[in-house]
Structure formats: C-alpha cells, structure tokens
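To start, an entry.
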Amino acid sequence: MAGILVAVFWAILVSFLAVALFRLARTLRAAGELVTRVTEEAVPLLAEAGATVRSANTQLARVDAIASDVQEVTANASALSSTVSTAFGGPLVKVAAFGYGVRRALGRNRGPAGDDGDVIVGGPVGGPAARAARAAGAAGARVPAARRGFSARRRKG
C-alpha cells in the first residue's frame, strides 16, 4: 500500500511539474518573440534618433553663429550710441539751455507794467487785489526777485 501511495504521489508531482514546465516554455517562447520584435523596431528608431541628434547639433551650431552676430551688432550699436551721445549731447544741451534763457529773458520783458518781479510773502498772490495790496503796503515781507531766483536754483541742484 505504501508503494502505491508513493507512486500516486510521484505521478501527481510529475504532472504538476510537466504543466509548470509547459507554461514556462510557452512564456519563454513569447519573451523570445517580444525581444525579436523590439529589436526589429529599435534599430530603425535608433537610426532616426541619431539623425535627429545630428540635425539638432547642426541647428545649435547655426544658433551659436547667430548669437555671436547679435552680440557683435549689440556692441556696435552701443558704440554708435555713445559716439552720437558724445558728438551731439553737449551741443544739444547748450542749445536747449540757450533757448530756455532766451524764453526766460523774453518772458521778463513782456511782464505787466510796474511789475518788478518781487514777491510779497504772506500777502495776496495776483490780480488787481494784489496790486492794490502792494500799492497800499499790505502786510508781508518783500523778497527781491534776485534772492528768490537764487534760492530756487539752490533748491533744484
């Protein structure tokens, strides 16, 4: 009886091993086919990737050349700007200052009759009431125009 039990046990064990080996063989065959397909598709992909890298390298060389040209143009524009500023900046400032002086001088000559340019501090500001207040000697200190201009220039600078 023991021999029959051992024989049945071995038969069951061999059947399970046969089924496992059959499934393992089928899995190995499928893996082999998968590797074959991946290899067939990977080789052209790698060739395309190599071509893409070469093309990108060519484009990067072009971009590098363009960037160096842009840097050169920027340097030239900076040099031109400083040259123009040096050549025309000083004279333009002088012409503007002269024009301002002329306008200011002409503006003083066109003022109302009897206006000497003084300012009454603390008194009326303008119009007929201010003239009447000045004529009557209204309260407030008179500040000469020369001193007023000096203090205004001092505050600006």
